[in-house]
Amino acid sequence: MFPGRDPRRAAEPRKFRRGLVLLPSLITVGNLFCGYACIVHAMQGELLTAAPFIGVAVILDMLDGRIARLTGTTSAFGLEFDSLADMVSFGLAPAVLAFAWGLNGLGKAGWAAGFVYVAATAMRLARFNIQSPGQGDKRYFVGMPSPAAAGVPAATVFLLADPTFRFASMVANPAFRSWSAAIVMIVPGLLMVSTIRFRSFKTIDPGWQRSYVGLLLFILLIAFITTEPATTLVILSYGYLFSAFIGMAITRLKSRTPPRAAIES
């Protein structure tokens, strides 16, 4: 129809566009696989192998949405698929991991603690899905995000299940493991369904785009994770958990402090 035009070249942009559409979903599949792998290894008692899969799932969960927005390939299917994958990786997998580590020592109470976390994750994801894009303050999450909540039990088990841990003799106590597992299930579960605001790092813009500060901090983070992975991940996960309460305390102190102009008058 068009002389001199190669039909194969006309099909290349369409194939490239199709690849872009599939890329976020492929990353979501990787997220789902990490949750499944964590469950399988936890059931086999390989806790030190199971726990890092949740951390990899967190990274993949951050990537799939961002890549979908950058490439303009967001869709209703992608949103639902991502939510279902999050339910496995950040809801079911941490509960199975905590149960294999210590919840099984509490009997029916351990079952209940794990189910509280799983149910809270489902409620947190459902509440996030029904929120309209322009609803609420984009700088904050209402309730603890499920990936951050899953990071608490994953980092805890990754640190305390290591036989080379400094306080391994204390962790070897079955009662200590059981109650610690219950705490890292119930506390993040309640925070997910709470109305406490947690900071969203997507809207933080400290002006690092025009400098190398952000790159330097990222390099330092990689270095710490490489040298002391368990300790670094515990600091990150628990630091984000307590950051909400620190922010609440600072806000209340500011509200109680009268303005300087009123004091001078």
Low-confidence stretches: none
Number of strands: 2
Radius of gyration over all CA atoms, rounded: 22 Å
Strand content: under 5%
N- to C-terminal distance? 83 Å
Q: Sheet bearing the most strands, described?
A: 2 strands, antiparallel
Mean pLDDT: 84
Apparent shape: globular
**What is the annotated CATH architecture?**
Up-down Bundle
Secondary-structure-derived class: mainly alpha
Secondary-structure map:
Blueprint: H1 7-43, H2 47-71, H3 76-101, H4 108-130, E1 140-142, H5 146-160, H6 168-171, H7 174-192, E2 197-199, H8 213-227, H9 229-256, H10 260-264
Antiparallel strand pairs: 1-2
What this model shows, in words?
By secondary structure, this protein is mainly α. The protein has one domain (16-255): Four Helix Bundle (Hemerythrin (Met), subunit A) (Up-down Bundle). Helix content is 74%, strand content 2%. It has helices at residues 7-43, 47-71, 76-101, 108-130, 146-160, 168-171, 174-192, 213-227, 229-256, 260-264; strands at 140-142, 197-199. A two-stranded antiparallel ribbon has the order 1-2. The longest helix has 37 residues, at 7-43. The chain is globular. The relative contact order is 0.10.
